Structures are given as structure tokens and as C-alpha cells.
Request: fold
Amino acid sequence: MKVVLVNTDFTYEADLNVKVQPLTMYTIAGIISPYVDEVKIIEPMKYRLQNLQDKYFSVLLSEARDSDLIAFTVNSFSWFEISNMCKKIKETLGDKKIVVGGIHVSFFYKEILENNPQIDFALVGEAEKSFPSLIKYLNGQLSIEQVPNLKYIHNNKFISNNNAPLVDFRREKIPLPRYDLLEKKFFDRLTFEASRGCMGNCKFCSVLHKRSWRNYGEEEVLTRMTEFKKHLDEKCKNKDFIFTDDCFTTDSIWAKQVLQGMMDLGFQSYNMLIEARAKNLWDESLLEVISSYDNLHIQIGIESGYDEGLSRINKEIRVSDIIKTMSLLEKYKICKNVFTSFIIGFPWETKKECMKTIQFAAFLNDQYGIEVNVAWWMPLPSRLFFSYIGDNNIFNMENFAMDSKIFNYSHPNISADDLSSINICDFLYKNMGITWRL
Reply:
């Protein structure tokens, strides 16, 4: 059996010129390799960056012709293109089986299957248990009912199989992603997973597994990183990688032990990025280890610059807590390697609330020299989306994120004059290190 895996491409938001390796399909390739004869990964990024969309489709068709299954990982930004790509594949190749998964599918699988007959299956949530079972079903080794996390249409009826339990990284043996399949020296930055999920429960966040952080044991992380480092040195343009963990610092003792072990593996001078929650950085023994690295960068999602806003998005932190975190980062001279993100324009916010966040972000940049990103709230799948918007038809629009009607609809308390004023702030604050996605 041959399986074609198609990644969704992205570039790291802080530097749109950096080509970052999407991890999903390399992870799935590692999971299913024992069950298939051949795995092929296609990277749309390679063709998009050269404006070669026709060639991308030609390559995809060529690989798909002699395949048994074509799989797409989907986010809300890529759904429009991928749904159309699936239609073209079915029109051209007919009987090829297509499965979709990813964050967008995990939220909207029923609507996707009911409105897109070109798609045969949807796999929701984690793939470690479900994807091998799907392969076994296609090989005649399991009944379709035995494939966990699988959603499909049968006799015009929507069928939802039982969901598998979440992966236990401490007890289950998970293959390393197939980094050997990477194109040599194409990506500027690779990706590595040491844990998954988040103990937070922010209302705006699309992370599926909230209140559910799971991690590999320290020794297993370091064993996997030893192998990863070989691929990083050989395949990546730079000694540069990102931990894809939703929150690397959830267990500060574990994080400290992993980082200490990585120094022994020779990672001290590598450029790397972790994500952290502000309160997790109150452990000064962790900060001391972080400060020993030459280029360890930290991304902290702060999101709102005033206590009421932080409470309404369930961030479980106050402005005073953020100040404490920044003071500790300053103490250990880490601020220069810290990147913070803020969101303005939550559905209840007026210009007044937006300016509170903008002013607090500017204060952090001015006081501590921390890099700041301020972005407009975007209607992506989350509890906040379903509470205030709920209309998932917007994702069937090309470039929905740039559509002015959707912006106005999702920011009901922001007028054209307000938008103009905030754009002036962009001009006034640009020399303070604040970047914008307006």
C-alpha cells in the first residue's frame, strides 16, 4: 500500500521569510510506516513560494495515481484550497480514497463530510491510534467500525465511530517522525515535539486538548533529540528548531531537566523556540538554565492588557502576574529573547479596551525591551467563536481572514474611525518593536 500525505504549509508569524517545517505529516509517516509499503510527503510550501500552483497539482496527481490513500491535514486557513483540491483529485482520478484531518476537521467534521462528497473519511483528534487502524481497514484487516476517531458517510447517513483515548507518551511507544523524508536544505527551521496539550482553558484558543498536558519522560525526550539532531544538522539550512509543544514549561522541573540534558547533547548554541505560560516562568531554577543558552527564545501568549479582558478569555492570570514574570526575565537577562503576543478586538471590545492592550504591550516593550506582537482577534474555531460568531460557512471563503465584511461582522464594536485610530498607533509604536497583523 502507498499513502500520499499532503502537509499544510506555514511560515513562522514573527518572520514570514523563514520556512518552518510543518510536523504533522512527518509524525503520521512515522506512525504508519510499519503498516504500509511506501509513504510520500508533499509540501505545498515548496510550490507556493515559487508561485507554481499548477506544478503542485501536477505533482500531487502523479503521486496519487498509484496510491491507495491520499491524506490532507487541514487548518481553517487552508480548508478552502484543500476542499477544492480534493474535488479536482476525484474528478481526475475517480476512485482514490481521500481522508482529511487536523484542527479544522476536528471541529467541523460533520459539516465537512455532509457537504463535500469528494472526501471519503475524516479523522479527528490524535492520529497515533486511528491512522494505523484506517490502514488496516483499507487492507481488509479490520472492519470500518473498529477504526477509532473515524467519521464518514454511509448510505447517506453520517457515522461517527468511538474516539480513542488520548496518547500516553509515558507508557506508549511512539515512533520518531520521519525526518529522513525531509528535502535536504529546504527548510530554515525544523520542529520537534516533547509534549502535547495544555493545562490552560483559554476561550479564544483552538488547541483541542485543554486541561490535558502529556509529555514524554525526560530520558525519552533526550533519546529522541539525539536522533533529531542528526537530521537537523544534515537536512536543515540552519541549526534552528521549534518545540511544537503548546506549553513546554507546564512542568518546570521536567522542562529544566530536559534543557539541562540538551546542553550535554550539544544544543547550547542552537537557535530554538519554546512556548510558555507566564506563571510557569516563576521558577528561577528554570530561568537560570534558560539563561545558560545562547539563543533560546521564549514565546509567551499574554493576549490581553487589562484584568477584565484576561478574565473574560479565561487566561487565569492578572496584569500584576505578567509584571512579575517580566521582572524575573529581566533579572536573568532573558528579555532580549522573549516574544509576547497580544490580541485586540475580542467581540465585546471597543476601541477603549483595544487601546488598553496596545498601551500595555508598548509598556512591556519600552520597560523590558521585549518583542511584542499585537494582532486582531480572528474568528477561528474556539469557545469564543461559537459563542459570538458560530457561522462556520465563513471558512468556505477564499482568504476569509482578509475579508472586510467578516472583519466588521466579528468586531461589532470597532468602527471605521476606530480602525483608523488604531492604524495610527501602528505608525507611532512601530519604532518600539511592536509588529502588527491588521
